[in-house]
Structure prediction request, 506 residues.
Amino acid sequence: MISKNQIKHIQSLHSKKNREEEGLFIIEGIKLVTEFINHQKFVIKEVFATFDFIDNHKSGLISNAISFTEITTEELKKISHLTSPNQVLAVVKSTEQKLDITLLNTSNSLFLDDIRDPGNLGTIIRIADWFGIKQVICSPNSTELYNPKTLQASMGAVLRVNVITMSFEELLAKTKKLPIYGAVLEGENIYTTSLKHGLLVIGNEANGISNEVLKHISHRITIPAANSNGSESLNAANACAIICSEFHRQLTY
Amino acid sequence: MISKNQIKHIQSLHSKKNREEEGLFIIEGIKLVTEFINHQKFVIKEVFATFDFIDNHKSGLISNAISFTEITTEELKKISHLTSPNQVLAVVKSTEQKLDITLLNTSNSLFLDDIRDPGNLGTIIRIADWFGIKQVICSPNSTELYNPKTLQASMGAVLRVNVITMSFEELLAKTKKLPIYGAVLEGENIYTTSLKHGLLVIGNEANGISNEVLKHISHRITIPAANSNGSESLNAANACAIICSEFHRQLTY
Prediction:
């Protein structure tokens, strides 16, 4: 049983402003919530679930001391942002994630310069996770990590990848001289240039990398198109996938 | 000036059923509509646009004998499916696109086995265009090419890539022995296996390649993850981007 006030409170977390003010966000669905319960990177404030979910996950909820409330499918519909809610919704405390400078200097990291689409941010985190990239740094004007669409698209990768919000200037001040790769439309062919560990910058969906960041790029790299009269660009997440893949190939195989 | 009946008719094309019955679809926005006007792959039935668009594109509309109607921003809002409509909407005749068997046998093609997300289909067409792949064959249960989200995500690549709906069985019957690559979770490492021209199969977002198609795959290929305890998979469009990129690299550089 969920109270009217609780319903109102959870619905209020559908808005970014309230998520930020309260330091809370919501996640949904059996798979994502179960991963959050088991992984313990984030503190779960409360789980609202139908009988089936609670029946199957009671021991995990109890052993992790997570408070939970059984609700009906109708009640779940009221608090969910999904068209087809799936058994469970959890309210989670957001955590400020810290930059690991050693990791920054010894492995690949991503800097997202104003990625605006939550789906793109989520799949980019999933790509990072796939290729063993542990840190994704977002410019302050990028879309929000705790947007439900970002979390859904990341498919749990947010549990294994740290996502840090920081301006490029601030990031630069924290690192020693590191190769800074920027994905641009006219740069070195990624397949034939020799890629090293470094920081990879992905620009905004419509405008690419901003001028303030571009001037610090030490290596401009490009995914060469098959011919010059095709599409003008690739979707930002797809471009990121290809470049991370090529880094992985060159550094591993 | 647009009539109430015209408004109703265009609104009816927001549904797949009506698009299919009428053989019509809609596209929106200055860039996409302009590309459709210039490219002439599809027949434009009518353009509805505000004064600014018509003022800037009158000669192109007249020289291509495209009928157009000036409407107000308010009227555009009524017929648009976008939150922020952008000057113009066009009603276009859908065209059955034919498989080119020579092209199938001499270059890379994609087969999409039940891709359900219109955004994924659209960006996959854009990826194909980037890497010079001229044919994308969709299984009959895949999402619809003429869904506005597919068209928007393809960013005009539908003008340069033929998208054909055909079952895998039917496709097999039309081709001579061709390498058939399938993207699976446990297959040959794409970076170290030698890739040739062939047909590349991308599976459904949740379930991968269906069993009926899987049995015809001659080469199971995989994007190797950096470690075994990360994300279980990549988004279908991102996986497609990486694999097309690796084909392009191996076959070109």
